[in-house]
Design brief:
Layout: E1 3-9, H1 11-15, H2 17-28, E2 37-46, E3 53-61, E4 84-88, H3 92-104, E5 107-111, H4 120-130, H5 164-173, H6 193-206, E6 210-212, E7 217-223, E8 226-232, E9 237-239, E10 243-245, H7 252-260, E11 266-267, E12 271-279, H8 280-288, E13 308-311, E14 314-322, E15 326-329, E16 339-342, E17 351-359, H9 375-391, E18 397-401, H10 402-406, E19 423-425, H11 434-450, E20 460-465, E21 472-473, E22 489-491, H12 493-496, H13 502-521
Parallel strand pairs: 4-5, 4-10, 5-6, 10-22, 18-19
Antiparallel strand pairs: 1-3, 2-3, 7-8, 8-9, 11-21, 12-17, 12-20, 13-14, 14-17, 15-16, 18-20
Helix pairs in contact: 3-6, 3-13
Length: about 525
């Protein structure tokens, strides 16, 4: 058996295998050439002190040969003639549900309103360059869901939700770097996710499943409080007595459909704010205590940050922080602007960005109470539409320098940022209700006290960051995971209010697939 060690080393030691082996050998009182193999099991960075260290968990093979066990896919079954389950949405919840169904012998039919992962690129270019929003194919809709072209973070705090390691290993089997099994905050990168998503789709089809693009569901057929199938925008009817509803946090038409059909849904609190962009070298200097000019050196990655404050009884926190990344336009309809962020796998852009959002409460939606369960969604929509008007009715976004925002001053100039459609100088207090504005202003001052140098006019705020999570919850039974009212309907993932990122959505997709099979066997 290998010997496992928990060690802390300098970044240059962690990055260079010969130095790391020498360090471990010295700790074990053996010669470096006695180490047959050294495997890094876990890696994280400790930047709490002025001297940055790397925490490693390693397995040292020093008196036995090492044989690497390949990471392989499960034994999938051909389900071409098996019972069918409709999956609405080809994001992580939908794709992992489909793969789990195949593994267990049922046939998934995945309906995706958007385009395949390659074809989506043309629509992303159109929104960035031409300010044209395709309501069915954009940063939120299309194969792979919102995560495909908005960063690909694989970190979740929700370890109790399920087997995180299984999901990570499946990603590796489909082509992701094995590094995601090691890093404390794994990340695939927007540039690498498309090929992984494509490989998943091809595997689903290879084993008899179906993946149908450009197909938006316009009705769910319900008979005697049990699902019977769906109708698409092409007026096609697809029959099935099990439907996994995995449409994501921005599928407003699905929320409206359920509400119109009196299928029970409820308003859910979420968070909303701005996306803040700093120079990456400034964030590095704050987090690593290094010189802003000379930088972090060759052995440390671009630094992320995570910060949480309580401001006047509300949480204000960083969300989806993207080191070495860019800000993207994530509107799903004309007449609105929305921001999000992403990083390539190398995180090698010159800017860092993060959502900085304020916790909302159900009572905040009171001005929209006439919309019932859709009150939060209408609150969200109203802010996105106001931002669109204020910025000039294109995909340009309202923007303001950070210190100017805290002082309520319109910025006289906005430098070019990573947000390709462009910015318009706006006093952001005009975008938000007063309670959000005041919370953000006070919160940024508090952030600046915790992270010296963070509060600066070199940071540009873009508004709004509004699609943090679903504004609606679709209630389901705790045991069967079926809708509390409709049998055979499995609300799933972020859109239903049961996930908050790629990993938790994938886990929830698998859980819903398992319940589909379990109820089928009863």
């Amino acid at each position: 058996m290998p010997r496992e060690l928990q060690i802390q080393v300098a970044p240059e030691v962690a990055a260079q295998k010969p130095l790391l082996i020498s360090h471990v050998a010295k700790l074990m009182h053996i010669k470096p050439d006695e180490v047959r193999h050294l495997a890094i099991l876990k890696r994280s960075i400790d930047a709490r002190q002025r001297t940055v260290k790397v925490n490693l968990k390693v397995a040292v093979y020093y008196n036995e040969e090492f044989t690497e066990a390949p990471i392989t896919l499960p034994n999938y079954k051909n389900v071409n003639n098996s019972q069918e389950v409709i999956i609405i949405g080809a994001g992580p919840a939908g794709l992992f549900a489909a793969l789990q169904l195949i593994e267990l012998g049922m046939k998934p039919i995945v309906l995706e309103r958007g385009k395949d992962v390659q074809a989506r690129r043309r629509d992303l270019k159109a929104i960035n360059r031409d300010h044209i929003v395709n309501a069915d194919s954009n940063y939120c809709y299309g194969e792979g869901g919102a995560g495909t072209y908005s960063d690909g973070k694989l970190y979740t705090r929700s370890k109790k939700r399920g087997d995180v390691d299984r999901i990570l290993r499946l990603f590796v089997a489909f082509g992701a770097s094995p590094d995601i099994l090691v890093e404390a905050h794994p990340h695939i990168g927007t540039n690498k996710l498309p090929n992984i998503i494509k490989a998943m789709r091809e595997k689903i089809i290879e084993y008899g499943g179906e993946v149908i693009f450009n197909t938006r569901v316009t009705d769910i057929i319900v008979k005697n409080n049990t699902v019977a199938g769906v109708v698409t925008q092409h007026n096609d009817t697809i029959n099935a007595n099990k439907i996994i509803l995995a449409t994501g946090h921005s599928a407003r038409d699905i929320f409206e459909l359920l509400d119109r059909k009196k299928i029970y849904i409820e308003a859910k609190p979420f968070a909303l704010g701005v996306r803040a962009e700093h120079p990456q070298n400034l964030i590095d200097s704050i987090q690593y205590s290094c010189d802003v000019t000379t930088g972090r050196g060759n052995y440390l990655p671009p630094s992320p940050y995570s910060i949480v404050k309580q401001v006047a009884g509300r949480g204000m926190y960083s969300f989806c922080m993207c080191p070495g990344g860019v800000i993207a336009p994530c509107a799903t309809s004309e007449g609105e602007v929305v921001t999000n962020g992403w990083s390539p796998s190398k995180r090698d852009q010159e800017t860092a960005n993060s959502g900085i959002v304020v916790e909302l409460k159900l009572e905040d939606f009171k001005p929209f109470e006439k919309f019932g369960a859709l009150a939060g969604m209408e609150f969200q929509k109203a802010i996105e539409q106001k931002a669109w008007h204020l910025a000039g009715k294109t995909q340009r976004v309202p923007a303001q320098r950070m210190v100017d925002f805290t002082q309520g001053k319109t910025s006289t100039d906005i430098p070019k940022t990573s947000y390709v459609p462009g910015t318009t100088s706006v006093e952001l207090g005009q975008v938000f209700p007063n309670f959000i504005t005041q919370t953000l202003r006070e919160g940024f001052i508090q952030f600046g006290k915790s992270m010296r140098g963070y509060l600066t006019n070199d940071a540009i705020l873009h508004a709004p960051e509004s699609r943090t999570s679903s504004p609606v919850r679709i209630p389901r039974d705790r045991e069967t995971l079926e809708h509390v009212q409709i049998k055979g309907l499995y609300p799933c993932g972020e859109g239903a209010g049961y996930a908050g990122g790629i990993i938790s959505a994938a886990i929830d997709g698998e859980k819903c697939a398992l319940k589909c099979v379990a109820t089928n066997l009863q």
